[in-house]
Write a structure and sequence with these properties.
The complex is a heterodimer. Chain A is an alpha+beta fold. Chain A has 38 helices and 23 strands. Chain A has a 6-stranded mixed β-barrel. The longest helix of chain A has 45 residues, at 288-332. Chain A is elongated, with a radius of gyration of 34 Å. By secondary structure, chain B is an alpha/beta fold. Chain B is built from 7 helices and 10 strands. Chain B has helices at residues 48-56, 78-88, 104-114, 119-132, 148-160, 178-195, 206-210, and strands spanning 4-15, 22-33, 37-41, 63-68, 71-72, 89-93, 166-170, 198-202, 214-219, 222-223. In chain B, strand 9 and strand 10 form a beta hairpin. The chains are: A alpha+beta, B alpha/beta. The A-B interface holds A 443-444, 573, 576-579, 582-583, 586-587, 590-591, 884-885, 887-898, 976-979, 981-982, 984 and B 49, 53, 56, 58-59, 78-79, 82-87, 89, 91, 93, 95, 97-102, 106, 110-111, 113-115, 117-119, 122, 144, 158.
Chain lengths: 985, 225
């Protein structure tokens, strides 16, 4: 469902709820009046209630704002990178660049489109790569984007703007425009003599350094590598392509957004109108801006999903808090409600009273929560901005992209409002079913009658059936593992409800709790019962987390007395005889609903925080494994414009390089269409790699690489598999994105990807080729950094991959990779050799992930506010509720300090039990993911529990609870006993 | 002549201040003798409960002196006053004020534990007194599982279990029916006989007052002569 239709639906629901409320208010005026009086009863209390109720909305609102901002940031770079290039006519070459074609194609396109009103500009271009050497500064730079374009033909693409603000229509003959990135890399300024290296070399002069606006940041979006712009004729000379171009940029009418919106219809028109031209030149029409915007939207949706799913724990905790608040509110008003019933108010009217009050609180808290969420969203974006600086994205750009869309505000408000309202109504419905006499006399409600258990047994039977049905259809297969997990939980709960009709609650629900916790937390059981082919993402963590926490708390709560006795025993004789200990432990154990609410809130919040911190620590702790897996043991991946088949020989003959490098593996590489049986979107475009089978020892890929396998055909060893790849035509190995996706600690691949098992036969065809080759996959690698298919060298050669323009290189131990890269770049500058420090790039990527996890830790830490608020509100209510009991204790000799200690001990026990459950289960879920097959595949073999961080979380949580309950506890201690013993609420 | 356990001299209790000041006790002078059951009667709002609160140490006084066993209880700091209440007083209230989370025997154990007795001792004494009061089969019941009369008996047991110097009872039969009221009154009398316990009973009930050794009538914050 599109965002706009979701918003419309939510608004409709909101209007309906308000309209129904209005009608009901008119029909039940007394109930409405009582509800409004209740809302206005005490400002502090109302503020407290709204404070407690707004948490869920805040989480939703904050997540949506982060999603909006990430989307806006992606759009920022997308708009910069695509500029006004709405459609591109071009042909991808198997090597990954663009194929050259005759300039006459451009003439044909302009002729065909003359008079077509939706297009405002058509520009012929050359888009290639080049190296540059600044003769003034003496600095070389490789792998720059070379863009050849004529100013007069590309006005629709916008103007270049020099750093001094001057507008420039295009590069002059003999001159070169360089963007800020290139200027920075070369330390170049206007007027510097610059030699450009393509297929030939040309001495030029820097005309100006241009800003990275929609023109200057074309393709790169303002990120590295830099751009050099020359006139079309200069580019043709440089690339030795006289009379040819390789790119036609088409600009639609209107703004960039308008252009992207009309891109589908324009490209359809182009495809039909230009069909003969496209066919004769082998060209295709692409929609770079629209495609990039779609990808940006998907990427921001992924971010939003992560925040929302992790936020779900806090949302559940927030809902529990709402239940807690309203159960207490109902308790507080029991006598009042009893009187209202006694003087003739119908039960239904009581429900309406709560409904109206709930609507008022929900409306107010959703508004406050939405606003607070925006503030929290900004805070998170500020932090995210600092995290992403290592990726080259300035924090200022991130903050400039801070966006709050009206849609997000509407969604946050309505979702928060409905969530609060539903929880309030459900919580209060039960309260309204009170017995009049018991309510007036404040007598506790008796145990539920048998008919309640009978009803629950029927409900349980339905749950059991539904669970069994879903389980039977999903337990073996490739669906998301959440389905069989949830259906398993339904079976357990359903069976429990049926059993509770006949057996004691304690026995039944202890068993159910243990079963739930084991079902969610014991991974080998999943493998045994569900197989290993299920997929799963971050939502599984939520499902397992809720089940584990719920099950464990069920066990604790149904054995609360035993647990309290154990605690007393652990405290020794003092625990048995201390009245403070007795009162402090007896309240939580004998008020199970309230204790359940507090514990659930705290356990969930701490669980999420510990699990998030655990993921981060485990990723960081496995950095070496991850780097080894992804780098194959090599230091650099390199590409050159000119093939360097004997790179190792050239290195050996260079006295400097010979000391710095221990091997250099040349490879052929390019783009291919891969077809995998069962994949819906065949063919899948991917990279191909092939290393010569007969290179000299030090440069032999098959003996020097350390890329590990996730699986091999018939379980053969890695070395045997590599030998088979080297020597057996028709064999291939693939990267780990091709492996069946299972629950993944790092989330797995981001987009749809074909999957296969070893032994599968796939079809590989170079782009634009009609001669595919069928190969058998004999191994699936653990790495994903070099995504694609590794072909047997003779098979690769048979489909045209013979140019050795890609390389793996390893530096000697103790040699600086920075120095080695600079020396190699200098030595092979003419060939345009570019080296990427694999380990450094992976480390940066992991550090960014780590930073992102830190951000998530802070986000989920917001849930701690729920826990603190819960404890504070519960403590405050406890003072009011227990006034008379406090008075009696004081009359019996309790000192103020004993009252204070009682409160502190009670909340200490509650907090620490919640923290302990959260910590144990949070650590367990990280451990489970660490030992899962997919984690092992990704190089995560070592489980790391961040004990220092966990201790910090526990201590901070505990201290904050102490702060939250300090006020109420002092109030309780200072209650004058004479007043307290007589007080009735 | 028995000695005075409680001596009050010119005891004032004023709620509020300035124009809104309401004197609840207006210079009361009273002596409560050891071993007697004293009934305090009077119309609603005459200051009976204020008298009980101020003389038992639950509430502060505005002026005057209250000596309990020779000690000025209002000169004590809060902690010492708490300790005094734990060791030397017992309370019975109209609404029982039992701790709803604790069983009958746990409620009765509580004053002993507060006074520093061991868990075993407290349990044994609580069981003994509850059994004596006919609640031997209700030891593990929580207040909500007991009748009003039973709850008040537990409350009495709690007040007496630590053998306090004086038991203060505020409308102990106010929530009970006639039979329950009669049982509690008899019990008070019996306990007074058995333990020579000094008791002060604030009551509206003439039958309860009639069962006491002495009755003081109160009006507008003063005892009538």
């Amino acid at each position: 469902m599109a965002v706009s239709s979701t918003v419309a639906l939510l608004l409709l629901i909101l209007v309906v709820v308000f309209a129904v409320t209005g009608v009901l208010a008119l029909r039940h005026r007394l109930a409405f009046r009582i509800a409004m009086r209740n809302v206005r009863r005490g400002r502090v209390r109302t503020a407290l209630l709204i404070g407690g109720l707004l948490v869920a909305t805040t989480i939703v609102s904050g997540s949506l704002v982060v999603g909006d901002t990430v989307q806006q940031l992606s759009y920022h770079y997308t708009y910069l990178g695509a500029g006004y290039d709405d459609e591109a006519i071009r042909a991808l070459s198997p090597s990954g660049g663009f194929l050259y074609f005759s300039y006459s194609a451009y003439t044909e396109v302009t002729t065909a489109l003359s008079g077509y009103g939706h297009v405002t500009g058509i520009a012929p271009e050359i888009v290639d790569s080049a190296s540059a050497y600044d003769q003034h500064t003496g600095i070389p730079e490789t792998a720059l984007n070379l863009i050849g374009v004529n100013g007069n033909q590309s006005t629709a693409l916008g103007s270049f703007v020099a750093d001094n603000g001057t507008q420039i229509s295009g590069p002059a003959p003999g001159k070169v425009l360089i963007d800020d990135q290139t200027a920075s890399a070369l330390n170049a300024t206007a007027g510097d003599p610059l030699v450009l290296y393509g297929q030939t070399k040309l001495p030029l002069v820097v005309q100006a350094v241009v800003q990275e606006n929609v023109r200057g940041a074309f393709i790169t979006g303002g990120l590295s590598p830099g751009n050099v712009f020359v006139s079309l004729s200069t580019a043709q000379i440089l690339e030795n392509q006289p009379g040819k171009i390789n790119y036609i940029a088409i600009t639609n009418t209107g703004s960039q957004a308008d252009g992207a919106a009309s891109s589908s219809s324009v490209s359809a028109y182009l495809n039909s109108t230009l069909a003969p031209t496209l066919a004769s030149y082998g060209l295709t029409v692409e929609t770079p801006l629209e495609t990039s915007l779609t990808q940006a939207t998907q990427s921001s949706q992924s971010t939003l999903t992560i925040f929302l799913v992790l936020g779900l724990f806090s949302i559940v905790a927030g809902a529990m808090l709402i239940v807690g608040i309203f159960v207490m509110l109902a308790e507080e008003r029991k006598g009042e409600m009893g009187m209202l019933r006694a003087i003739g108010m119908r039960r239904r009217e009581l429900v309406y009273t709560y409904f109206f009050e709930g609507v008022a609180y929900a409306a107010g808290s959703a508004l406050a929560g939405t606003a607070l969420g925006v503030g929290i969203g900004y805070f998170l974006c500020y932090l995210a901005g600092s995290v992403l600086q290592s990726e080259g994205i300035p924090q200022s750009v991130f903050l400039q992209s801070f966006t709050v869309t009206p849609e997000s505000l509407v969604i946050a408000y309505v979702v928060g409002f409905l969530l609060t309202l539903v929880t309030v109504v459900v919580a209060c419905r039960r309260a309204s079913r009170l017995n009049i006499v018991r309510a007036i006399r404040d007598v506790p409600e008796p145990a539920p009658p048998v008919r309640t258990y009978t009803f629950l047994a029927y409900l349980g039977a339905v749950m059991l059936l539904v669970g069994a049905l879903v389980y039977a259809t999903t337990y073996r297969g490739t669906t998301d593992i959440s389905y069989p997990l949830i259906s398993g939980a339904l079976i357990i709960l359903g069976a429990g409800l049926v059993a509770a009709r006949f057996l004691k609650n304690r026995i039944v629900f202890t068993t159910v709790g243990v079963a739930l916790a084991v079902w969610a937390g014991w991974v080998p059981l999943h493998g045994f019962l569900l197989g290993t082919n299920h997929s799963g993402g971050i939502f599984v963590v939520f499902v397992e987390g809720i089940m584990m926490v719920g099950g464990t708390l069920m066990v604790l709560l149904f054995n609360a007395n035993e647990f309290a006795a154990l605690l007393r025993a652990m405290l020794g004789p003092k625990g048995q005889s201390s009245p403070v200990v007795r009162v402090a432990l007896d309240y939580p154990t004998r008020q199970p609903t309230r204790t359940a609410v507090s514990l659930t809130i705290f356990a969930l919040v701490v669980f999420t925080m510990v699990a998030t911190a655990g993921f981060g620590a485990t990723l960081q702790g496995n950095l070496n494994n991850l780097v080894a897996n992804e780098s194959g043991g090599y230091s650099f991946f390199g590409v050159s414009q000119v093939p360097l088949p004997n790179l190792w020989g050239q290195i050996e003959s260079n006295s400097t390089l010979a000391k710095e490098f221990v091997n250099a593996v040349p490879m052929a590489t390019g783009l291919v269409d891969v077809s995998v049986s069962g994949y819906a979107a065949n063919p899948y475009q991917d990279s191909v790699y092939a290393a010569p089978a007969t290179s000299p020892g030090a440069t032999d890929f098959y003996t020097t690489n350390q890329f590990a396998f996730a699986s091999t055909l018939n379980g053969t060893s890695a070395s045997a598999t590599y030998q088979e790849l080297a020597t057996t035509p028709g064999t291939a190995i693939v990267d780990n994105y091709y492996a069946p996706q299972t629950t993944s600690i790092t989330g797995g691949s981001s987009g749809p990807h074909p999957t296969l098992s070893v032994g599968a036969t796939i079809t590989v065809a170079p782009l634009l080729s009609e001669k595919p080759v069928r190969v058998t996959v004999i191994g699936i690698l653990k790495e994903t950094a070099f995504s694609g298919v590794w072909l047997n060298p003779s098979t690769a050669a048979s489909i045209g991959f013979t140019n050795l323009t890609a390389y793996f290189l390893t530096v000697a131990p103790g040699v600086s990779t920075t120095h080695a890269a600079q020396d190699a770049k200098r030595a092979f500058f003419a060939a345009g050799l570019v080296l990427f420090d694999i380990q450094s790039l992976i480390a940066i990527s992991i550090n960014t992930t780590d930073g992102f996890i830190g951000l998530l830790e802070i986000f989920v830490g917001l849930g701690l506010a729920v826990g603190i608020a819960a404890m504070g509100i519960l403590a405050l209510r406890a003072v009011v509720e227990r006034r008379r009991q406090i008075g009696m204790l004081r009359a019996m000799g309790f000192t103020q300090s004993m009252v204070l200690r009682t409160y502190f001990l009670e909340y200490t026990v509650l907090t620490l039990v919640g923290v302990a459950v959260g910590v144990v289960l949070g650590v367990l879920i990280v451990y489970n993911l660490t030992v899962s097959p997919s984690a092992t595949t990704e190089g995560i073999t070592t489980f790391v529990a961040p004990w220092a961080t966990i201790l910090e979380i526990a201590v901070i949580a505990y201290l904050l609870v102490l702060v939250a309950i300090a006020g109420p506890s002092l109030r309780a201690a200072r209650l004058p006993p004479a007043e307290a013993v007589r007080t009735t609420e | 002549m028995p000695e005075s356990v409680v001596v009050g001299r010119d005891v004032w209790k004023v709620y509020g201040s300035g124009d809104t000041a309401v004197p609840a006790l207006r210079g009361i002078n009273v002596d409560i003798l050891r071993g007697e059951i004293l009934a305090v009667m009077g119309p609603s709002g005459c200051g009976k409960t204020t008298f009980l609160n101020c003389f038992s140490g639950l509430d502060d006084i505005s002026r005057g002196q209250v000596l309990v066993e020779g000690t000025d209880i209002h000169a004590m700091p809060d902690a010492k006053k708490s300790d005094y209440r734990a060791r030397r007083t017992g309370f019975v209230f109209q609404s029982y004020n039992l701790l709803p989370i604790l069983s009958a025997e746990e409620n009765v154990e509580m004053p002993l534990l507060i006074a520093g007795r061991s868990a075993q001792e407290a349990r044994s004494d609580a069981r003994a007194i509850l059994t004596e009061m006919g609640l031997g089969d209700r030891l593990a019941h929580r207040p909500s599982e007991l009748s009003g009369g039973q709850q008040q008996r537990v409350s009495l047991a709690r007040a007496l279990v630590a053998h306090p110097a004086i038991v203060w009872a505020d409308e102990p039969t106010g929530n009970l029916d006639a039979e329950g009221s009669r049982q509690v009154t008899e019990l008070l009398r019996q306990l007074n006989r058995n333990f020579h316990q000094t008791m002060v009973v604030v009551t509206h009930d003439a039958e309860v007052a009639a069962a006491c050794d002495r009755t003081l009538h109160m009006r507008d914050g003063l005892f009538l002569a």
